[in-house]
């Protein structure tokens, strides 16, 4: 059972480049979330989804877009990367309550 | 405003000693509370959760936490720590019907041999 899988695990971008992080879960969970984790700041919610075809903004959505075309996948996009988006990104899924996390994607924007 | 406070950024404990990590929350309704653990370079793993009922909850790896409504606290405890417990610990509270969580900034646990 793979759980929550994030790809890629590491990526280096130049300012202004775009990229997409993929999150896949095989637990048939309705809820999915994208967080960023920065030192001393805990986790901050970027966007979330309460089901296939739905998305909503979290605490820090600016500069990011998301899509949930399939229930099992939740994509996080950066259209024009900025150094402030250097962070570790975590995807999580939930049946309603407990969150199950992926192992994270470390993104560096130069 | 809703918030979660973990007042200790770092805690150092000797192996075999007891542990208590503090968590205070600010939330108007009955909270759903969690403790997660994150080992270096890993994702977060659920230690335990409180939704309702018995205010002393047991979790994995020998951890427990006690919900105290009067103190708005949900402190994590372990009677005897092991070197493998060295990690960062996060407290979180559910704040809406979409199960959005507000997270504390984390407490890094360091184990002295």
Gyration radius of chain B, rounded: 13 Å
Written as H for each helix and E for each strand, in order along the chain, the element string of chain B is EEEEEEEEEEEE
SS elements, strand count of chain B: 12
Number of helical regions of chain B: 0
The structural class of chain A is mainly beta
Mean pLDDT of chain A: 95
Overall pLDDT metric of chain B:
93
Structure summary, number of beta strands of chain A: 11
Let me know the largest β-sheet of chain B.
6 strands, mixed
Strand content of chain A: over 45%
Can you tell me the residue ranges of chain A where pLDDT is under 50 for at least 5 consecutive residues? none
Distance between the termini of chain A: 36 Å
Unreliably modeled segments of chain B: none
Q: Could you spell the SSE succession of chain A in H and E letters? A: EEEEEEEEEEE
Strand content of chain B: over 45%
Radius of gyration of chain A: 13 Å
Structural category of chain B is: mainly beta
- Helix fraction of chain B by DSSP (H/I, runs of at least 4): under 10%
Biggest β-sheet strands, sense, barrel of chain A:
7 strands, mixed
